[in-house]
UniProtKB/TrEMBL annotation, chain A:
Protein name per UniProt: Unannotated protein
GO molecular function: ATP binding; ATP hydrolysis activity; branched-chain amino acid transmembrane transporter activity
GO BP annotations listed: L-amino acid transport
InterPro entries with a match to the protein in the record: AAA+_ATPase, ABC_branched_ATPase_LivF/BraG, ABC_transporter-like_ATP-bd, ABC_transporter-like_CS, BCAA_Transport_ATP-bd_LivF, P-loop_NTPase
Gene3D superfamilies listed in its UniProt record: P-loop containing nucleotide triphosphate hydrolases
Record key words, sorted: Amino-acid transport, ATP-binding, Nucleotide-binding, Transport
Domain ABC transporter: 8-238
PROSITE patterns xrefs: ABC_TRANSPORTER_1 (PS00211), ABC_TRANSPORTER_2 (PS50893)
Automatic annotation (TrEMBL), chain B:
Listed name of the protein: Unannotated protein
Organism annotation: freshwater metagenome
Subcellular location: Cell membrane
Transmembrane found in the keyword field: yes
Transmembrane segments: 56-73, 85-112, 132-152, 159-180, 222-240, 272-295, 307-330, 342-359, 365-386, 416-434, 440-458, 470-488
Molecular function as annotated in GO: branched-chain amino acid transmembrane transporter activity
């Protein structure tokens, strides 16, 4: 990571839900190959930030650059086509469809899913191969998480947006899923990860941002943040 | 993980059972309920047949039967039933795309059928005096209904579920009202009014299809045409369903927002579903008009709509084989029910099936049958002892079943009055039945069965039209209770 090329850059974003002002003057950057985490308490606007990046909600002011293009006014499918992929909060798998079909939907913007892409996901999560004809809704929470990540990988994304990947997982599985994230990162995948579990997130991330009631209050190298007094007090445990 | 709380040996046996079926342990566990339901025999029968025979064999047999039917049946009435079935399958296929795959509740669907029929009628009759070539007319109709489907799909971009249903319902009604009112239109430049659709009188004298100089004068021609079309549609739709388009349709049905975040262009796919469904219905309408050589707007209204919906839901929304099955039931059954002898037998079959479905075990089933028989004799003996007059047997016996029943069934003098009373009591009892305890249920069931037979023989058998509707309604209710997912539909799974 010698030279820094910005992949995603959002500047001065203000997002509203109706009259409610959620994001206020948010600036955030993810460089090529970087793993950035976005921390913050409940309802501070983390998911809203991801939705704004993905285009599910439109900011009132501000600009979003992705892969060298201004995507502020593009719709979600267009952004996915440019290389964004999301692992949504609660996974949002298509329950009555099989694991295989869920994975294939991930490749939708690329056309029909290629066999080698599937193999790549199966290499990462061998369990999914044996479960490929099982209905996604009947998987355990951990397995569903694998499908959600695999589904995101199927589109060859340049940037993966993850919303609370550790949610609802047992401690052992949380660890595993962060190992998987670190593993993807080492393969050069850029990621923006929203997390409540600040310790875990900072242990794998390059940089981090801290959001508080819609404002970025802290940002910096992950190591720096992990040692930060205020953050320690607020999130990292008593 | 919570898995650790399950005893080892249970977990292991689940795993081995699951391995036998080639599915994961969790799915095996998730299918638990379904497996239990399957073991009960009758309820799981359609699924069992569906699963134990490979798809190509099932479709092959169906094709063979249809082929033999077209080749060997000479009876015009039977052929007409076959043609109606073909049209019904086309309509079910189209609706299955819109509603079954894409999950769009389109209650104006049948209007596209009507537009196709009226479009053909206007371009091929003396109504306006056009007799265009079949090729051109059919092409115009397909493109025209597709375009209309596109326009109707526009509100669907913002609307879901019940809102979409209301808007499309409105569209369907607008079509009917427009046709009714378009027999008397005055243009500012013309002195006389213009009659475009002939209103409620309908349009007669429509030209039959004519391809390569061959006029479709025999109903069999339409049968072959429909057989080819349905076969082609079956192949095309099941193909599309396996591509990314089909998958994307189903993701929209499940979770449109999540689908969009995967890059699925939700609006475009909704439109595609609407357009395809509309074009299929429009084509079916054109065939109907040419076959019937007359169209009446009343044939494209809510009654038909409910029948198509019933067919798709009955067969299992989202399943093509299910759509065929539903279409067979909904289009052939009413014909069968026209004949009293058949409808009597069918009624008893439905009753027995219901008892079997509700009774769950052979023992309970037998008890119920015996119970019903005893109640019958008891009523007859008691009322006979009280010397209450009955209708003479020969006055109410209509078919072989009622002849057999005449030794057992008490039939009052005023059949209409007592039939109506029995109807009210029956409904109250059924309503009570659904909420009460198992013990009272088991006592109530034979009583309900007896009242059902009583009502049928005393009141309904002679009233063919009401009976048809009631019987179909009853069958739907029974099916929805025993197989909520339809004959061949998949049981729903939710992410928890
Ligand atoms: N569609 C919506 N309409 C109105 N308000 C909304 C909507 N979605 C989110 N909000 C509000 O915006 C605020 C931020 O929500 P957001 O989902 O971004 O929180 P979050 O930081 O992801 O929280 P959590 O960690 O609990 O997921 C909350 O107060 C929420 O109630
Ligand atoms: Mg959130």
């Amino acid at each position: 990571m010698s030279e820094k090329k910005p992949l995603l850059e959002i500047s001065n974003i203000d997002t509203y839900y109706g009259a409610i002002h959620i994001l206020q003057q948010v600036n955030l950057r993810v460089d090529e190959g970087e793993l950035v985490c976005l921390l913050g308490g409940n309802a501070c606007g983390k998911s809203t930030t991801l939705k704004t990046v993905l285009g599910m909600v439109k900011p009132k002011v501000g600009k979003i650059m992705f892969a060298g293009q201004d995507v502020t006014h593009q719709n979600t499918p267009a952004r996915v086509k440019l290389g964004m992929a999301v692992v949504p909060e609660n996974r949002r798998l298509f329950a009555p469809m099989t694991v295989l079909e869920n994975l294939k939907i991930g490749a939708y913007v690329r056309g029909e899913a290629a066999e080698e892409d599937l193999e790549r996901v199966y290499d990462l999560f061998p369990k999914l191969k044996e479960r490929s004809s099982q209905l996604a809704g009947t998987l355990s929470g951990g397995e569903q998480q694998m499908v959600a990540v695999g589904r995101a990988l199927m589109s060859h994304p340049r940037l993966i947006l993850m919303d609370e990947p550790s949610m609802g997982l047992a401690p052992k599985l949380v660890e595993q899923s962060f190992e998987m994230i670190a593993n993807l990162h080492s393969q050069g995948v850029s990621m923006l990860i929203v997390e409540q579990n600040a310790n875990m997130a900072l242990s794998v991330a390059d940089r981090g941002y801290v959001l508080q009631t819609g404002r970025i209050v802290l940002e910096g190298e992950a190591k720096e943040l992990a040692g930060h007094e205020e953050l320690r007090r607020a999130y990292l445990g008593r | 993980m919570s898995e650790n709380q399950v005893p080892e040996e249970i977990q292991e046996s689940a795993a081995t059972e699951a391995a036998k079926l080639g599915i994961g342990t969790d799915e095996w566990v998730a299918q638990h309920e379904e497996r239990i339901a399957r073991k009960k025999g009758i309820k799981g029968l359609p699924q069992l047949i569906n699963e134990s025979i490979p798809a190509w064999a099932r479709w092959g047999v169906l094709l063979l039967i249809s082929f033999a039917f077209g080749a060997f049946v000479d009876n015009q009435y039977l052929l007409r039933i076959g043609v109606n079935l073909g049209l019904f399958v086309m309509l079910s296929y189209g609706l299955n795309i819109v509603m079954g795959y894409a999950g769009l509740l389109d209650l104006g669907y049948v209007a596209f059928y009507g537009i196709g029929a009226y479009g053909y009628a206007l371009m091929s009759s003396e109504q306006i005096g056009h007799h265009w070539s079949t090729w051109l007319t059919v092409l115009i109709i397909i493109i025209g209904t597709a375009l209309l489907g596109y326009i109707v799909s526009l509100p669907s971009r913002r609307l879901f579920g019940d809102y979409l249903a209301i808007v499309t319902l409105f569209f369907g009604q607008v079509f009917v009202q427009l046709v009714l009112a378009s027999d008397n239109i005055t243009f500012p430049w013309a002195e006389d009014y213009v009659d475009i659709t002939a209103g409620a009188n309908g349009i007669p004298g429509i030209d039959p299809f004519s391809f390569f100089g061959h006029k479709f004068l025999n109903i069999r021609d339409y049968y072959w045409l429909l057989l080819v079309l349905v076969a082609l549609l079956t192949i095309a739709i099941s193909r599309v369903n396996r591509t990314r388009i089909g998958r994307a349709w189903r993701t929209i049905r499940e979770d449109a927002l999540a689908a969009e975040s995967m890059g699925v262009m939700v609006n475009r796919l909704k439109t595609m579903a609407f357009v395809t469904g509309a074009a299929i219905a429009g084509l079916a309408g054109a065939i109907f008009a040419a076959m019937q050589t007359a169209v009446f707007v009343s044939g494209f209204d809510m009654p038909l709509m409910t029948m198509i919906y019933a067919a798709v839901i009955l067969g299992g929304s989202g399943s093509l084989a299910g759509a065929v099955m539903g279409a067979i039931v909904m289009s052939v059954l009413p014909e069968v029910l026209r004949v009293t002898n058949y409808s009597e037998i069918l009624f008893l079959a439905v009753l027995v099936l219901t008892l079997a479905a509700v009774g769950k075990s052979v023992k309970r089933f037998t008890i119920n049958i015996v119970g019903i028989a005893l109640i019958g004799f008891l009523v007859k003996i008691l009322l006979g002892a009280a010397s209450i007059k009955t209708t003479p047997t020969k006055e109410w016996v209509v078919g072989p079943v009622s002849r057999a029943l005449s030794h057992w069934m008490y039939v009052p003098l005023d059949r209409v009055l007592w039939g109506n009373c029995a109807f009210v009591i029956l409904i109250v009892l059924i309503a009570y039945f659904t909420t009460t305890t198992p013990r009272i249920k088991s006592i109530l069931l034979p009583v309900i069965g007896y009242l059902g037979i009583f009502l049928w023989e005393v009141r309904l058998v002679t009233d063919v039209n009401t009976t048809r509707q009631l019987l179909i309604g009853a069958m739907l209710v029974v099916l929805m209770i025993t197989r909520p997912q339809g004959f061949l539909g998949k049981a729903r799974v939710e992410v928890l």
